[in-house]
Amino acid sequence: MTNSKRTLHASDAELLAWLDGEQQESAQHIASCEECQQRALALRIEERRLQGMLFRAACPSAFELAEYGAGFLLGQRRQEIENHVAVCPLCSQELAWQRQFMRSLEVQSVVARETAGRLQEVRESIRVIVARWINQATGNAGVGLGMQFAMGAMRGQDKRPMLFDADELQVTLEFYEDPQHPGKHQLVGLLIGEQSPERFKVQLWQDDACVAETTVDDLGNFIVNDLPPAVYDLKLLHPKLEVQLNALDI
Amino acid sequence: MLYLKSPFSPHFPITMHRIHAFSMIDDSRPSSEQLAEECAKETHQFFHDGKVTTGPNCLQLFQQAIIHKDEGAWEAIYQQFGPLVKGWVLKHPAFSKTGEAADYFVNMAFMRLWGAMTPEKCMNFDDIKGILSYLQTCTHSAIIDQWRSRQKELLDIDTQDVQYRIETKRELISQQIHQALYCKQVLDAAVLRLKNDKERLVFHEIYVLGMKPNDIYQQHAEEFESVKEIYRIKENILARLRRDKELQQMMA
């Protein structure tokens, strides 16, 4: 066999791309080459075997995740699942469905009761939502490679907006150097999806102590100045709702 | 004897009488028929009259079924709350993605409740709202289980493994736990053989999350020169794992 013939066959990378339907130069050769097609088939079998074993291998079962979402899990397992959900978009999606599902059932109950002509107090306690960082996976805000391997706290050093989802609300956060306080930071936030955002107040917590507080204006904006570099928990507080954005690394 | 009718599988119908052939009936407790009647009134009051109630009779009906293994109580619960659960299923955002009938999930939700709600757990609920919330959780997880199976089908993955079969027996649950642990061990072993963050990212997003290289490139364009680089990384990973005898033995 001459060197030119030996180099005609597609590499494994090209075969994998061909299997995925990617357009490439070697596609025509692969389509007409029996040896390449057999190698492609072997690769496909190998992949299916790997994926069959590994797809969502790190995810909790649907039932355990549902128990977590409904607040029935406690202790260490609850924390383990919470840590996993923070980096798994598939589990996050299922939890979002669960919240949407439970909320639709609450609304159904409220409508039924109001239709009956009685006003009932549905919420007897404050609802707490832990917001989900939704653009974490797109490499924004200094995540680094891979959701699973992102370091613990969420980083804002590269100053791209961080987008959070809290059911029907969204929060955007940006961090800047505070021009009035050298060496300190300024947090600029925007709350979206609330008709009366001015009913919210903002608190920044560090080690179980509230270190800063401000209010949200009628357009949803809020600013906190003079923040030393640290890891904070942010809370958006409403008379009937608390939204938590945890482990913000400024 | 209670039959849970399902249009789906030859494994059904499941007969509830195999839970217990008899129950230790305390004569001082109301019968399941009486409780069912009172529970129906409470449910009607809640949904039609707007009266908020802890549902003591409904709660006792569930306790009768779960703690005292009363078949009649289980049947009454299924009759009373089956239509409610069906309504929940139809409202679920992932229901239409599963390709299954609503009645199938109604059966699955009650089976899951039957399997997961132990007498100890049941004693922790002091009103019917809590138990119904748990039943909603069972309903949701039944739908999500089917969705996960569907995801595997869409990815053209072999769906024969026991992990995604219906939980119909406690032995199967035990098998599922072992299978899940085994898969996690294989995953951990494979990850140890990866050389750098790029390989770990590609491996995780392709094999654990089911993404395509093109999607990975869209999300992490700043990390990779091109989609071709991702395919080269994938090629290297597969070649290295293929040569690793220890890992291949684990996966055999």
What order do the helices and strands of chain B follow? EEHHHHHHHHHHHH
How big is the Rg of chain A?
A: 25 Å
Q: Major β-sheet of chain A, in short?
A: 6 strands, mixed
Name the helicity range of chain B.
55-70%
Query: How would you sum up the global shape of chain A?
Result: elongated
Low-confidence stretches of chain A: 1-6, 115-124, 137-159
Q: What fraction strand of chain B?
A: under 5%
Q: What average pLDDT do the residues of chain B reach?
A: 80
DSSP summary: helix tally of chain B: 12
Order of helices and strands of chain A: HHHHHHHEEEEEEEEEEE
List keywords for this structure.
heterodimer, A: 250 residues, alpha+beta, six-stranded mixed β-sheet, five-stranded antiparallel β-sheet, 7 helices, 11 strands, disordered N terminus, B: 252 residues, mainly alpha, two-stranded antiparallel sheet, 12 helices, 2 strands, 66% helix, 2% strand
Structural overview:
The complex is a heterodimer of chains A (250) and B (252). With 250 residues, chain A is of the alpha+beta class. Helix content of chain A is 34%, strand content 27%. Chain A has helices spanning 3-6, 12-19, 27-32, 34-54, 62-69, 75-85, 89-115, and strands at residues 127-130, 132-133, 154-155, 162-166, 169-177, 185-192, 201-206, 209-215, 221-227, 231-238, 241-249. Mean pLDDT of chain A is 79; it is low at 1-6, 115-124 and 137-159. Chain B is built from twelve helices and two strands; from the N terminus they run ββαααααααααααα. Chain B has helices spanning 32-48, 56-66, 71-91, 95-98, 102-116, 119-123, 128-154, 170-192, 197-208, 213-219, 227-243, 245-251; strands at residues 3-4, 14-15. Chain B starts with a strand and ends with a helix. The chains are: A alpha+beta (250), B mainly alpha (252). At the A-B interface, helix 2, helix 4, helix 5 and helix 7 of A face helix 7, helix 8, helix 9, helix 10 and helix 11 of B.
